[in-house]
Amino acid sequence: MSDFVTFILAIISAMLIDNVVLSRFYGICPFLGVSKKVKSSLGMGIAVVFVILVATCVCWPLYTYILEPAGIPFMDTVAYILVIASLVQLVGLFIKKYSPSLYKSLGIYLPLITTNCAVLGVVQTNTDTGLRFIDALANGLGTSIGFLVIIVVFSCIRTRLESANTPKAFKGLPIALITAAIMAIALMGLQGLFAGI
Amino acid sequence: MANTKRYVITAITLGLICAASGALIGVTNAITAKRIDQNEKDNIQRGFAEIYGQNPVVSDPKPIEGKDYTNQVYTVEIEGVEGVQYAFRADGSNMYGKISMLVGFDSLNQFKGMSIIANTQTYASTLNQNYIDKIKTAENKSEKIEDVKCGATYGATLIRDMIHEAQEVAKQINPKE
Amino acid sequence: MTQTEYLIVAIIILVVLAVTFIVSFVLYKRTPKPKGCEDIEISEEKCAGCNNESCAFYKEKDSIEVLKNKKEEK
Amino acid sequence: MKREKGQTKKNFLKGIIQENPLLVSILGTCPALATTKSLEAAIGMGILFTIVLLCSNVLVSLLRKLIPDEIRTPAYIVIIATFVTMVKMFANAFLPELYSTLGVFISLIVVNCIVLGRAEAYASKNTVFDSFIDGLGMGVGYTMALCIMAFFRELIGTGGFTFGQIFTFIPYTALIIPGAENFKISVFQNPAGAFIVFGLILAVMAFYKNRKAEMKAWEIKQAKLKAAEDAKKKLEAQKANVGGQQ
Q1: From the list C1, C7, C17, which residue is nearest A83 (CB)?
Q2: The complex's ipTM?
Q3: How far is CA D39 from each of CA A56, D90, D163, rounded to the nearest angstrom?
Q4: pLDDT tens, N- to C-terminus, chain D (246 residues)
Q5: How many pairs of residues across A and B have Cβ atoms under 8 Å apart?
Q6: Gyration radius from chain C CA atoms
Q7: Which residue of D has its CA nearest to C22?
Q8: CB neighbours of D184 closer than 8 A, spacing ≥ 6?
């Protein structure tokens, strides 16, 4: 099978079958916290896609070509969190200075991305599981797009849940979590999608 | 002037914090490194016991070069069994993660068993349930190895390829015919 | 390169990363907000439901409470 | 400074009940959903988390006068990352089963909102002892919340509990309710089950909170009614009095 096909398959499986939020549990905090309005969830999702992609491109070479030959692979978590945090600050700085319109829509979510498990989780698993660079990139791309899709879909459902007639105790987060469970069950049905290939 | 002093103090504090973190991590590494190595060795020993039944006498590994997956060879001797048996260490990775395993053969180069040392595949549990466990419990193991359709096909294919390669290497090292 | 040289390079890179982070953090904080965005942090709908104390805007959460109370009074 | 009596106890209990990080503030949800497949893994995660939280709280409050306000967050992140790396290495060396079960979630303690949040909101302003107690309370509260979730997930998902698989120093024991294996619902071991259990726990908490509020409102209403009745009686009595006089 050509590399291109595996790349696409890896993206799809990271995006849907093994969804970052619903089966790997990264980034639940923003998934629950920032999904009340479709617009804000879209902003958060796009910011996460960008940061994950760049962080993958920086962290993988950093680990493979520098930390590992130097004999200090255990410094990975420290290095990654420094990379991610400075990346977030630099992007924020750039947006704040040159693009007020972007700042208006993304500005509030940028500082939250540092403490978003999805970014560190993806970068860490990329090197923990010994992926090649192209696979790491596919994993990052698939994961982040999966996050974007799920958080937008979820926020659409949540806006409708607001007006739905739910029991009083379930109002707000509990019913949202049950909804997420049903979504997770739906995605479980996709497991083994590529079993025949 | 007061500003400069403040900056210097800030820089020194931060430098100290970084140095202290580095030192702490270094010390922890010195304490734990030996133990982690020992854990790894125990793991491999356990793997051999799993393949060959009782606790076998295993030689130190010798490196193998020029192969895709297979990278180390062990000679295994068991009390009461004639002939030298060979076992191989193989590491491979695909787009879902990496697999390290031991592949064991008996003295006639027949596939004896395998033991997974590390499996970081995303679908590790599916792979374990539907492929590895089936091989371990099957009567005719080599037939089960070929049956890779299990819901985690990529991982299963990787394991199959690793076993095939190890088989070839075993035939080269221990020619019987 | 020998391992020691690699180690030195790695440490230098780590220090550079730390410095980048700190400098960019301070710069981000010092850059004034662009025009028209002065009050984006204190919006009720965006932050409600998130109790993240480590969020850079958390300190301004109190002002959300103030806003809410004012609305209720009206 | 004089301390109020019972303040330490209050400080400790606050993290467990009133401000429980997982169940009340809804923070640190990622490991809460991912590591609660079995009770043992949940306890292990809780212990590692508590260690990191305690160490970072103590160190941050020790350094609170040295670290300038402006660069607080970067310094805290470096401190927390250091402790997480140390805990990770110790876990790898001495509890390898726990290390491989939790996997990447040990590293993810770095970005856990609770640790950074407590450092920012509490430890940077309070004494070392107070921060220690606060960290202990929060850690224990988080561990307890994890255990509650894992209790239901393992009980319903497998029909009982197994110990000794992760903490290998205790003997392997499987406490399976006889006959329960025919009635186990394995979806509770899957990701979906985690969401369901967490949602139901939150719903139960909201139910009790609502009921408490309703009871309070009812009491107030009763008190008001009673007051109104009293006033009415008084008025009638006055009227009667006035009538009698006439």
Answers
A1: C17
A2: 0.86
A3: 34, 21, 8
A4: 556 667 888 888 888 888 888 888 888 888 889 889 889 999 999 999 999 999 999 999 998 888 887 788 888 989 999 999 999 999 999 998 899 888 889 999 998 888 888 888 888 888 999 999 999 999 999 999 999 999 999 999 888 888 888 888 888 888 888 887 788 888 898 889 999 999 999 999 999 989 999 999 999 999 999 999 999 999 988 888 877 665
A5: 49
A6: 21
A7: D74
A8: D156, D157, D158, D159
* Disruptive mutation site among C7, C22, C25 for chain B (greatest number of B CBs within 10 Å): C22
Is D93 touching B (CB cutoff 8 A)? Answer: yes
| B26 Cβ under 8 Å from any chain C Cβ | no
**pLDDT tens profile D46-66:** 999 999 999 999 999 998 888
pLDDT in tens, C2-49: 888 888 888 899 889 988 988 888 888 888 877 766 665 555 555 555
CB within 8 A of B2, min separation 6: which ones?
none
Dihedral over alpha carbons D45, D48, D54, D55 (to 10 degrees) = -150
Map tokens 């079995």 to a residue.
D38
Q: Judge contact between B78 and B54, C-beta under 8 A.
A: yes
Separation between Cα atoms, residue A63 and residue A77, nearest integer Å: 10
| Number of Cβ within a 10 Å radius of residue D129 | 13
Structure tokens at A173: 């987060």
Q: Do D86 and B14 touch (CB under 8 A)?
A: no
Note the pTM of the prediction, 2 decimals. 0.88
Q: Kindly report the CA angle at D145 between A166 and D48, in degrees rounded to 5?
A: 140
- Strands B70-77 and B85-94 come out as antiparallel
> Which of C29, C30, C53, C57 should we substitute to test contact with D (largest number of D Cβ atoms within 10 Å)?
C53
- For residue B24, give the chain A residue with the closest CA: A75
Cβ distance A25 to D192 less than 8 Å, yes or no, reads no
CB contact under 8 A, D86 and B28: yes
Tokens of B9: 């103090």
Token reading at C64: 């959300």
B122 interface with D at CB cutoff 8 Å: no
